[in-house]
Amino acid sequence: MSKGTIADFREAVEAGQADRVLALLADEVTFNNPVTFQPFQGRVLLEVVVPKLLDVWQGLWYVDELHGRDQVGLVFEARAGGRDVWGIDLLRFDAEGLISEVTVMVRPLSGLQALAEEMRAALAS
Amino acid sequence: MSKGTIADFREAVEAGQADRVLALLADEVTFNNPVTFQPFQGRVLLEVVVPKLLDVWQGLWYVDELHGRDQVGLVFEARAGGRDVWGIDLLRFDAEGLISEVTVMVRPLSGLQALAEEMRAALAS
Prior knowledge:
The structure is a homodimer of 125-residue chains.
Chain A (H helix, E strand, L loop, with lengths): L2 H13 L2 H5 L2 E8 L7 E2 L1 H14 E11 L4 E9 L2 E11 L5 E9 L1 H16 L1
Helix pairs in contact in A: 3-4
């Protein structure tokens, strides 16, 4: 788990810089998004999806960082669809230090529903 | 952050033992549940709410533990309302080592919606 990668990821997401986020992802990355049961799989798909998803957030800032055996948790506060959202990004890494899995969970239900609505609209565009 | 408290909490939640969970909570505990924006505040309320909420889960087991500066994250997998749910409990502690804040986030949307439905029914009963 590279400290540099984690710091880069935090800064890039907070700044809404999709290219910088994509540069940190492994080719076979799995993105367990907060809305759908099925993950988004692979860099090729994420190159399309990540810029749209970053646009969904109206301000997102990380407030804490937690470390586990083989994953890191980045706690954030954000706004989406006019709603307050609290969430966490769980990151796993491959042998090269690239991000191999991102899992996002948010609360409350009103925030996740607003996020789902915004995600649907963004991905349809 | 007491290791004993964390291990006790994990075991008690997995076993659905409300009394054991309640014994770990500070009087002024804040419970940021995954569904409503407003938290449930205080032990007196949680003595009513926790037993009902534990009943909502059809199996919940912790799969990872993450440590931050002043909070711990317990990643879990569970079933609620016939749906698969992935989630995290974020715990904070007071000076006595009792749990002062619990924040729960889950994914995906279908899981949180099923959980919200089950929570509503359980709290109405």
